[in-house]
Amino acid sequence: MPGSSRTDVDVVIVGAGFAGLYMLHRVRDVLGLRAVVIEAADGVGGTWYLNRYPGARCDSESYVYCYSFSEELLQEWEWSGKYPRQPEILAYLRHVAERFELLRDIRLGTRVEAARYQDSDGTWRVETSAGDVVTSRFLVTGVGLLAAAPYTPDIPGLDTFTGECHHTGRWPHEPVDFAGRRVGVIGTGSTGVQAIPVIAEQAAHLHVFQRTPQFAVPARHHTVDRAVLAGIRADYDAIWAKAKWSLSGFPWQHNGRSALAATPEEVRRTFEELWEQGGFRFVFGSYRDLLTDIRANDLAADFVRDKIRETVTDPDTAAKLMPFDHPFGGRRPIIDTHYFETYNHDDVTLVDLRESPIKEVTPQGIRTTTEDIDLDAIVLATGFDAVTGPFTRIDITGRDGVALRREWADGPSTYLGLAVAGFPNMFMVTGPGATFGNLPVSIEHHVEWIASCIEDTLRNGLDVVEARPEAQQDWAEHVREQADRIVTGPSGSWYDGANIPGKARSPLFFFGSFGLYRQRCEDVATRGYAGFERRALV
Ligand code: NA7
Question: Whose CA is nearest to atom 23 of ligand 1?
Answer without folding.
Answer: 383
